[in-house]
Amino acid sequence: MFLWQYLTPLLLTTVLICTAQECHEFTDLSLSHAIIGTSLRVRLLLYTREISTCAALLSHTNLTAHPQFKMSRPTTFIIHGYRPTGSPPVWVNEIRELLLDRKDMNVVVVDWNRGATNVNYLKAVENTHKAAGNLTAFIKRMQDHGASLNDIHMIGVSLGAHISGFIGANLNGQVGRITALDPAGPMFTSLPPEGRLDPTDAQFVDVLHTDIDALGFRETLGHIDFYANGGTDQPGCPRTIFSGQSYFKCDHQRSALLFMDTVNRTCDSRGFPCSSYSKFLDGDCMDCGQFGDAGCPVFGYDVTQWKDVLLKLNQTKTYFTTNAQSPFCMTQYRVEVMIWNKEVRWGYLTIKLHGNGTEAVAVIDHKASEFRRYTDTRLLAQFNKDIQPVKKVSLKFSIGNALKPKHKLRILRIRLTHVVRKERPLCRYDVLLEENKEITFNPIPCGESNF
Amino acid sequence: MEIKMDTMRADEYDAARFSSNEREAADVEAHRSPDATETDQFLSEPAFNGNGGHTSGQRNRGNNDIGHREGAVCRVKKELCQNVFHGVRLWMIIVIILLIIAALIILSLFVCAAIHEDVDEKFDSSLFKVPRYFNGSFRLPNFVFTEELLTPSSNKRQALAAELQNKLNDLYRSSPALGRYFSKADIQAFRSGSVMADYTLLFHLPEEELGQLRNFTLSWEMVFNVFRQFLYDQESAESGPMYIDPDSLQMYSRH
């Protein structure tokens, strides 16, 4: 009996090792492959909760060969983009782990590294159509085995986003969802909808833009388009070419990191519908009334909660800002300031919220704010974290010009309203702000207002 | 690059002048002896006298331009190094003038900043004639009520009233927005309920901008909330007898 206690697990492991299939890895190529060029080869790596660390290489034709590939489960395809150096994408392992943690599903990592690795970007673009044809055939075969297109979600990064679009179009837009993470811009920007991803490619298409000024796509492509930090320069990414290759890919790659943060529900970033980023920064787009009680759509994996209302709106362009690292989400407050200075004042406000032994900072410096006597100046303050409850508030006013005389901002009332949480706004009355001098006070719940 | 081109053009022009007028050239030569030979050679050049091949003329002109450019640099250098008087050179004077100009600009900026008047700090309180009253009540939950507080002449009542009045006077006088308009605060009566205190606040407003002041700076909302936030700030004294319950504050404006 005693012996069996030890023998059983030992025997079991031996059996497992013998029966277990070989683990397949994402194709790892080198720069030399990129220089010579590679021809397209699409490998499908299956991960499920049973084989979450050891991928099975799916056969394109014989789906029954893999007992773990259950058609009753939803299937998520992860499709990467252009690989100029041939290395596997850094995010690919983490994203499939997070997806499997989240839901019992088939995660199919589409490895078309042979085909995407080429110094000639145009060749990789050519291969997107071929890869899409290949995957369309595979999904049709899945349908033959009982899979429903409704349960198929394709997450496409860069060129992969357009591949998802092509597959979706081949399947008459019946695919459940396409998530496009910074869809590629070069060679696609001026193309008609057939030549790129568009909202008709799936039942629901959600898009994130992080690099519209370089590698990404500038215009809207989905039912909802999120522009993180305006879609251009991502915080924490190098601004000069001296930082090496991360200068080129940091903004673009950030899209995958932002999405992964939402799969494991680190925190919520709400996308605010707006016509331009500058209007959003001005605080003109904080109205989420059209989405009812749910509020503005939360970017990421769970945006499907807003699917119905977004489909009715056809196409929605939204903005949000992020921190330089995870947790990426920021906390928005609407700030209203009324002054009694006789003259108009221009300047920048820095606001700090204190509570629970930590502090959150927001600097409103995208442009100089105008403060006018007896008029509410409405600003959007974006804090790096959410403080609850707020015990103290610090304010600092600066003109940003050392040569100008020291002006004071004579505040009658400052009101801080949390944009998402429905709670009573915080107020402070009669504050004298000297330039570059921080003032800290206890905010009080705002009373009724007549002005 | 453009500057170079300019000097070259100027040299060509000079050269043309020398060739047409030898006397002038000689005058200039007196100033710059080092390149005198080059100029001589230039003058003898047939291309500039109207005859001779075009190509050879251009080639030669190119050669001579270099000489002239050097010449011009030397001339400027020499002129800059000229003695204006006893050891003071021209370049020193130019540098000093530039420094003075820069110093004046910086100084004027500082003076402007220093003499800048804050228009919001200037006011004439003799013009503040229109009275504006607020009255209301608040509660001192920790103060024990006695009958004595109802008699106006009693010491206890007077002491408490004086203390509360000082509190209100200090509060409104130190207010950046309201201070200049504030006249006085009065505690008028005490009532039971631990102790309820009735107060009156008096402000004086100028005729000018009366409407705006009433609606904003001296609105009920401002006067009330300046008091209210003051009460929220008195954290440390929460158990003391002079603690005022912020939620008990009532205020009405009287017209």
From TrEMBL, chain A:
Gene Ontology molecular function terms on file: carboxylic ester hydrolase activity; heparin binding; metal ion binding; phospholipase activity
Signal sequence, start to end: 1-20
Binding site for Ca(2+): R196, D198, D201
Active site, renumbered: S158, D182, H252
GO biological process, alphabetically ordered: lipid catabolic process; phosphatidic acid biosynthetic process
Location within or outside the cell: Cell membrane; Secreted
The protein's name in its UniProt record: Lipase member H-like
UniProtKB/TrEMBL annotation, chain B:
Biased composition (Basic and acidic residues): 20-35
Region of interest (Disordered), residue spans: 20-65
Domain SEA, chain residue ranges per copy: 130-255
Highest taxon listed in the record's lineage: Eukaryota
Membrane-spanning ranges: 90-116
Transmembrane recorded as keyword: yes
Pfam family, one: SEA
Keyword annotations of the record: Membrane, Transmembrane, Transmembrane helix
Gene3D superfamilies associated with the record: SEA domain (3.30.70.960)
PROSITE patterns associated with the record: SEA
Protein name: TPA-induced transmembrane protein homolog
Organism for this UniProt entry: Parambassis ranga (Indian glassy fish)
